[in-house]
Amino acid sequence: MLTTVFRVIIIYVIVLFLYRLMGKRQLGQMQPFELVLTLIIADLATIPMAEISVPVLDGIVPLFTLVIIHFLITVFSKFSTKFSHFISGKPVIVINPNGIDYKALKNLNLSIDDITEAVRGAGYFKLEQVQYAIMETNGKMSVFPKSEYAPVTVGDMKLQVEKSALPINLISEGKILKNNLEVAKVDKNYILELLKKADIKRVKDCLILSVDKGGAVFVQEFDKAYKTFNVEPLGQVQE
Amino acid sequence: MTKFMWFQMISIFVILGLLITICAVEDKLVSDALYNVREYCYQIENAVIENDGIKNNVVNSLVENLEEKWLSDERNLCYVVNHKSIQEIGVEIIKLKTYIEEDDIREFSVSLELIKLYSEQYHHFMGANFKNVL
User: Fold this and answer.
1) Rounded CA gap, A216 and A218, in Å?
2) Helix, coil or strand: residue A132
3) Where are the domains of chain B?
4) A65, A114, A121, B80: which could join B26 in a potential S-S bond, CB 3.0 to 4.6 Å?
5) Neighboring chain A residues of B24 at a CB cutoff of 8 Å
6) Going from the N-terminus, what domains does chain A have, and what CATH number goes with each?
7) Contact status of B12 with chain A (Cβ, < 8 Å)
8) What would the pLDDT profile of A138-152 be if each residue is shown by its tens digit?
9) How many C-beta neighbours within 10 Å does residue B40 have?
10) CA A25, A28, A33, A38: dihedral to nearest 10 degrees?
């Protein structure tokens, strides 16, 4: 049993490392070759865990080989669009201004139900609201609505609005986030001042404290309602 | 190139190096261990003919040496080879000792032939050749 425990730890660490090496895309939008890779890795990793007579290397070597293959495919895909299209396919327009492209639909082995479901998923309940729908290579549907059905944006209204700024968390669960202090170019005294303004006595009592470039502060004490107020703009915050 | 891309590139080369090393080490370990086994088998065969039987000190000591050598090689082989695919050799070596005690030359010869067969045919069954790949 102890052997299994150690083996599981070894394999887990290696698989985790390999997934990190392959990038975050593995976890979300998977291309067909990445899906295949994920399935095989999951299967391979369990063999040396379950079978004591199989050396750990018998599990690790195929994993390493897969990573090399993945790396090569990724590199070749970057250099050659043709190769990339061969491996991952290309985005296909399934709805165009004339309506549903049935031929494209059949090529993708999709049904009308699949299309309407994907369109609904994008927030449009009528097909006539859609100008274009594109089936992406990762299997997700991108929907481009007709102008009259598109959500109104600030740009459309030609309004002058303040540039939005990313709030920076300075305290999270009672702990000062030192890296974010550097990003916001503020120090601990600045935080203490904000806490004083929010009537919070200690850093460890603060659930979250965030501030954006414009000086908008969001602060919440543990088990209490949040407060917002404005202070002097940070000015030097890196967006 | 970003830091992550450098990390990725270096890791891939390290992994590639590891793969090549592991494959080379496996081939060397397996070849050496099986060669040793075969050599001992031939020596035992000759000793049986020269001493006209198996129940004598020469054959006994050769089998002891074979067992000792195999046990030390097997320990290293277990890092790279499935234990099940090599355990038969160990089992047959143990049998040799029993047959010496019983003075059963017929079974002794069968076991010796089996050991030779396993050691000679291992690469045929497990090695990297076209048939095994397919």
Assistant:
1) 7
2) strand
3) 19-125
4) B80
5) none
6) 2-85 (no CATH), 92-149 (3.30.240.20), 168-230 (3.30.240.20)
7) yes
8) 888 899 999 888 888
9) 22
10) 100
Q: Which residues of B touch A57 (CB under 8 A)?
A: 22, 79-80
Token representation of residue A17: 């490392």
Neighbouring-strand partners of residue A219: A209, A227
Contact between A71 and B8 using a beta-carbon 8 Å cutoff = yes
Neighbour count for residue A97 (Cβ, 10 Å): 8
DSSP track, A26-53: GGSS--HHHHHHHHHHHHHHHHHHH-TT
ipTM of this model?
0.77
pLDDT by residue (tens digit) across A179-229?
888 888 888 889 999 999 999 989 999 999 999 888 889 999 998 899 999
Domain topology for B19-125: Four Helix Bundle (Hemerythrin (Met), subunit A) (1.20.120)
Segment A54-83 mean pLDDT: 88
Distances (CA, A) of A15 to A56, A59, A107, A233: 13, 10, 35, 45
Local structure of B63: helix, strand or coil: helix
Q: What are phi and psi of A47, to 5 degrees?
A: -60, -55
Distance from CA of A22 to the nearest CA of B (A): 8
Tens digit of each residue's pLDDT (9 = 90 or more) over B72-108: 988 888 888 888 878 888 889 999 888 988 888 889 8
Amino acid at A117: E
